[in-house]
Hints:
Layout: E1 6-7, E2 26-31, E3 41-45, E4 53-55, H1 72-75, E5 76-83, E6 89-90, H2 92-96, E7 105-109, H3 112-115, E8 128-129, H4 131-139, E9 144-146, H5 159-168, E10 172-175, E11 185-193, E12 201-212, E13 217-218
Parallel strand pairs: 5-7, 6-8, 7-9, 9-10
Antiparallel strand pairs: 1-12, 2-3, 4-10, 4-12, 5-11, 11-12, 12-13
Helix pairs in contact: 4-5
Protein name: Arylformamidase
Subunit structure: Homodimer.
Cofactor: Zn(2+)
Amino acid sequence: MASGWIDVSVTLKTGMVTWPGDPPVRISHALSMERGDPSTVSLLEMGAHTGTHMDAPAHFVRGGTGIGDIPLDASIGPARVIPIRDRTSIQPDELAEHSIQRSERVLFKTHNSEHCWDTDAFVEDFVYISEAAAEYLAERQVRLIGVDYLSVGGFHADGVKIHRTLLNAGIWIIEGLNLKQVPPGQVDLVCLPLKILGGDGAPARVLVRPMDRSAGEML
């Protein structure tokens, strides 16, 4: 993209992969010029946690903040893309290598970005954040974390506990990133979820721009 920005959002389309049990995605035309209407108006049918999206505390915390009240500085600003070698789950020992600091925005680039988005079938064995890693991140009071598939919690893990550990610690969550084209390191992040009153989450357009590590400036 122009000026070094990389779109790490997943394209919304009919029949795309969703979390098992979530509403399927259907994009149709309520009005269509091809059918003789004066304009074309799309009808979107999908869950709030479709494709690239953000989770609000209200997703798993009773009385938690809704997505419409997200502080803008939570999802806009400097961030760090951290590569993960483990192909099963993100673990504290690997995170410890990166000296994650308080209030950081961290995006995890795992094996997911290399293959999960190549199919519209749900991939069960995606790399997820382990319970121990969620506790590690909560203790370090990071500002935001992003993962490169549909959930911070694994399909066969206790996803509810993992979400609650992060959300109760005040950590905002981006799920459904595609970081395949993004090198590890410092980036500028822009993530704007739809403003839904009291929403438990919302689809988002997410852009990153890698920094020049030596100069500390944007490419």
